[in-house]
């Protein structure tokens, strides 16, 4: 059975969820152990916080640490991702990053709690709330799991909401299978150093408008390329690639194919073109971020060899 020293570690819980024909029905839950009391086991799962009454627990055990990346690996990848999606307005709270980009995307408008905030955790969350209030924005925090499990527990206690879980997926470029030849009639992928107006229009349709901060988020990276695919003079597919993390990480963002051009392999072609560019610059690994509920995209990336490195939740402060 679990003990207090298991708090903060990943566990699997088999719980009894019902009875059928006199036999118990079971369901398994996997997550970080946030709290262990005499009456409940509380987990931080990919779907959010889960509280299981002890009376429903059939079996619970700790998952070996070897099955998850080290804290240092999660921090390094999160910092590379932050570098690849740079907010124009930034602050620091010890090691924590505070980011604002006129509300455009959660990643560029949330605190990143990695490292030491240089103060007790409750005071750190207070400071985050004040910083975003001073910038006229709702406070948000991206909590990488399992690294930021204690932060998530503090936000739970304050009534913060959670957006759908996001998978941070990676692949070693050397492990990718050879690119298939694909359809010969598909248009080519063009890579440019700056986004065209047509490219920005597609991004605006996907992310909801283009405030002035957007150009900084998209272009303020030393190594960046924008992928475009045109068919009959119309832009039908886009993507963005960055190389950050001291040249190790190729980041893939804003992979989008217009509805009328889907199911033709264009997304894979865009990704492959950006991977080829990233590898030529010296990148050894690629990463991307995708909502867990976006099953078509998850399946696409899985087919290319991507696996989940860790997950994160975007937490949103309750209205004041």
TrEMBL record:
Pfam family, one: Rv0428c_C
SUPFAM superfamilies: Acyl-CoA N-acyltransferases (Nat)
InterPro entries: Acyl_CoA_acyltransferase, GNAT_dom, Rv0428c-like_C
Chain ranges of the N-acetyltransferase domain: 189-320
Keyword flag Transferase: yes
Keywords: Transferase
CDD domains: NAT_SF
GO MF annotation terms: acyltransferase activity, transferring groups other than amino-acyl groups
Keyword check for Cell inner membrane: no
Protein name as annotated: Acetyltransferase (GNAT) family protein
Organism per entry: Micromonospora rhizosphaerae
């Amino acid at each position: 059975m679990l003990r207090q020293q298991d708090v903060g570690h990943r566990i699997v819980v088999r719980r009894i969820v019902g009875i059928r024909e006199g036999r118990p029905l079971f369901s398994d839950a996997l997550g970080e152990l946030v709290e262990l009391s005499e009456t409940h086991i509380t987990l931080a799962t990919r779907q959010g916080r889960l509280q299981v009454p002890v009376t429903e627990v059939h079996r619970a055990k700790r998952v070996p640490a070897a099955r998850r990346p080290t804290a240092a690996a999660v921090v390094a990848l999160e910092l590379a991702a932050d570098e690849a999606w740079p907010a124009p307005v930034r602050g620091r709270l010890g090691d924590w990053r505070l980011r604002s980009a006129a509300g455009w995307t959660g990643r560029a408008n949330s605190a990143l709690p990695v490292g030491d905030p240089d103060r007790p955790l409750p005071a750190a969350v207070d400071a985050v709330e004040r910083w975003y209030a001073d910038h006229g924005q709702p406070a948000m925090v991206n909590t990488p799991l399992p690294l930021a499990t204690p932060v998530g527990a503090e936000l739970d206690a304050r009534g913060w909401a959670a957006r759908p879980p996001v998978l941070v997926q990676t692949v070693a470029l050397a492990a990718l299978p050879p690119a298939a030849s694909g359809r010969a009639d598909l248009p080519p992928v063009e890579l440019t150093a700056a986004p065209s107006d047509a490219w920005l229009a597609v991004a605006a349709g996907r992310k909801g408008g283009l405030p002035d901060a957007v150009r900084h988020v998209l272009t303020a990276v030393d190594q960046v390329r924008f992928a475009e695919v045109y068919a009959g003079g119309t832009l039908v597919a886009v993507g963005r690639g960055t190389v950050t993390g001291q040249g190790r990480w190729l980041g893939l963002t804003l992979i989008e194919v217009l509805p009328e051009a889907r199911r033709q392999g264009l997304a894979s072609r865009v990704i492959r073109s950006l991977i080829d560019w990233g590898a030529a610059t010296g990148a050894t690994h690629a990463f991307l971020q995708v909502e867990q509920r976006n099953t078509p995209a998850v399946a696409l990336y899985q087919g290319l060899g991507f696996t989940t490195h860790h997950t994160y939740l975007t937490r949103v402060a309750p209205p004041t």
